[in-house]
Structures
1.
Amino acid sequence: MNSVFPILILNARPAAGKSEIIRYLMSTPLEIRKERFRLGPIQVFDDFPILWNWFEEDDILEKEFHLPRLHSTPDHYFLKPEYWDLLIRRLSLDYERFCQVAAEDHTAILEFSRGAEHGGYQAAYRYLSDKILEKAVCLYVQVSFEESLRKNQARYNPERPFSIMEHSLDDEKMKSIYLEDDWVQFSEKDSNFLVVRDNKVPFAVLDNEDDITTRGGPELGNRLETILQDLWEVWIQEQEPTQLERK
């Protein structure tokens, strides 16, 4: 029987606090992290570095080799909406490679944002593998678009556009891609589970409109502990029948 979550999917609008939560959890000593948050040694799978690499490669192809761009326009919009789904398939493949070498008590954190403009979370989750969905739980960090926009502007560092903690979208991209969020529609079928194909993924929502993730400290730890312990109870009850079937 698992003692930690094998997979935590972390969703939210950009700059909502996902990376701050990961930083807090990874800075927590392992034994305390297991006890309070049900998370083992953490391996993060984030689609932003993949996306940024595509943009950089396209810029090189265009400017240095005078070849067509493969993924994006010169102002870094995707050429095809399917590339949003391709990012999710890449995360799934990277996770499956990780499983070949990882110990059983590790926790994989899959982090991504999706706006309704390109199918939202309802589309994205369809491209996660069953191997992920069968073992995952989801934490959604709830902020309004206005709060997401504020924090996105605040974290902007023009010297580090590739940085997980300091990258930023311009206001036009934020509005065109992330103004509308389909989380409510995606999660409304069941109060405890996201239903994807034949999989039921337990989920919880962390309200971060008060920006507790920037303040951090014990207050953030207590809020995370309450939510993740409740999520653990839902997840472990769902796993028990599966464990019995495998015996």
Note: The chain has one domain: 7-246.
2.
Amino acid sequence: MDRVHFVEAPNNFYLGAQVNPDTHEIINSLPVYYDARDLTTHGVILGMTGSGKTGLGITILEEAALDGIPCLILDPKGDITNLLLAFPELAPEYFQPWVNPEDALRADHTLEEHAEDVARRWREGLERWGITNDRVQQFRKAARYSIYTPGSEAGLPVSILRSFAAPSVGWAGNEEMLRERIEGLVSALLALIGVNAKPVEDREHILLSNIFETNWRQGADLSMAKLILQVQRPPFDKLGVLDVESVFPEKDRIKLAQSLNNIMAAPSFQSWIKGEPIDIPSMLFTPEGYPRVTIFYTAHLNDAERQFIHTLLLGEIHSWMRSLSGSTSLRALIYIDEVFGMFPPHPYNPPTKEPLLRLLKQARAFGVGVLVSTQNPKDIDYKGLSNAGTWWIGKLQTENDKERVLEGLDSARDATSALDIKTVDSLLSRLGPREFILHNVHEPNTPILMHTRWAMSYLRGPLTRPQISKLMANQRPATGYGAAAEPHHRPATQGTMPQQFGAALAAMPSSRPGQPPAQAAASVQVTPPEPAPAAITEDRPPAGFSAMPPSLGTTVRQYYFPVEYNVEQALYHARRAPQPGLEGQLLYQPCLLAQTMVRFTHRPTDTAETYTYAFVVPDVPHLPHLNWMEFVSNPFDPSALETAPRGRGFYADLPPQMNQASAFTALEQNLIDWIYQNAALYVYHNPVLNVYSGIDEPRKDFIARVQAIARERRDEELDKVASRYDAQLAKLEERIQRKSMRLDAEREELSARKREELLSAGESLWQLMRGRAYYTLSRTSRMRRYTSSSEDQLGILERDLNELVRQLDQTEAEMEDALRAVQQKWSDAVRDIREVRITPYKKDITMVLFGLGWVPYWYVILNGVPAALPASSSTITEAQTVRV
């Protein structure tokens, strides 16, 4: 086969070349391109073992990676892990660790010899398809390639616990999306214990769904342990209008709880809770915003475990997708290498079917493509696949398979489809290896017969778990098992601290109005009181304490932390041995409490957010000016504080400077000034697109959004460039065709004239013998002149034709350069991410609470040693021995 010449253009996947259906010869001049946007209407690959189905799937994924499209892959057989086997320089030493020893034995080769043979075949195969080593290396660097192994630590382990946590977006306003997520999660969980429950019919599904919804409404996370307990004792009394007991009796609930507990008790369950959480954005993009190709390898799991993780993943993908804005370009590709068992025809309804069907119906609007592959055509629901716009059909095993595929194609046609089922039927009967019928509803000239190109990845077959472990060894340290793989970035997600008071406040706690406060009261670290040792009496205050709080006037508010423990309870919480009859004296230690609401306004996006910040200053300062950064606290609930003390107590004396209301006024103003000067949050800005992030939007999410917008703009510009050059190329091709036809005609005419000249020469000899020399010589001369003229004309036509071909080649090269320039322009645009600092106006700083706080302690004598025991859960947790 001669070398295939293809034009490398963004957004156009190079998949192979067309095939002559009669001779099965590859037509080098007709490479097959596939517009990435067409995958937003999804695709199906069908073909028996040995048809080249895996090679086609990997080829599509290679092209997607080259185009910067993140991919998430469900790999039940392990074949797609070969994507990680693209080697530097295609050198034999890189192939050798991965070649199959059995293949070497069958070929009567040593491993070294077999590696050399494989490397040579790969180089030659890629060269025949016009693929250079530069393109292979570009593919290797195009994305981060990762293999996750749920339930195993061979690759990157996955933790399922995050899927049980309450969603950060909150319940209100997201009910429909979150109920769909709960439905998938519960279906997956029940599948793990062998229960194929229907969402609206089976009580197991109804009970678990209500438990999830009840907890998530309250913002409470679930764990397996908590779920098992709530199955036995649900946090509600009714299911619908009926009592829980009448719908699902306790003895049956206990059986369900035991089945769930068996999962948790199994030693292998530990592999399901270690590793990265299932976070779809993080699995599609690196923290820096570069695309990822993420493979979920599930060949090692049993059917129930595989159904569980597949259902969980599809549900998480759907939830992530629903959070996106619309897009007409392909922003992500979901590939399922073997959909058998996940999407069977009616009446079968495994837990994977519903979320996959939702993806097929809804993903197009969000620019998410779904591509499924199978070798069992009779075992998939073709009615559900009616949303698929592209079909690749390879060699099938039986006539029944062929009939099933034709029936599926026919049912997927709409009234405007030009698909000829008879043509497909005819082609199906004569398919060879790696030959596929390509039908694309977006292309009027399909179906066509195509041969897939050579894959850049080494297709050695499924990898073993030790091989996967070897491939993922360099990614494990960066994943941070048990936590998200992504480090904290600015701004962070809701519920963490996106604001910054300079660079130092990156970890400062904050909350929004309406969110549950981090604690019931302030997180107070107050130095316990240090009265001189003395006998405990009810009437006499210790030295340094007074029977009444200081009188600071009405302008200074005083707050009291509630006394939650008596002396006996304080001993228990302080981990001290009980001492019946122990008497204590209630002492209050002072602190300064402050809580502010700060409103940040971002004018370019016309958005504003309000955050709450709290400060606790122990031991009441001696100076009016503070470094407030040292006294940051979690936001607290002011209603947990009291405005008057409960019962009799004694109050520590304030420093002399703080006995005046003016000192508190000065401190309050100092805090407002400090916040005004230091409080800031950062949003991200792309100046090329003039797009800003949301105030709480993580960097990687903003980059993903910018990439989606840039891809749409890029595709629009590519279409304009291609349209412009298409008109030029069409004119040149038309002129070449006309010139070729004229050249052919001239060649035919020249040949005819040469024959006539030959005949004329013979006739002239005869006429000369008869004495008619003048006439004969005149005619012969004329014929020679005509022949010479035709040869001259032929030379001119050939030169003109060569010039037109040169212009065509030059125009194609210019088009390729223009397309690359567009790609580079928008690639550079995506990388231009800047931080924009937003500061509040002073008028937008509202002091919610500012005043003197009193923290209660029990002063006791323990074994002759004075001690102060915290009387409130908001104070320090350990009892402090009072220094004498």
Note: The longest helix spans residues 699-769.
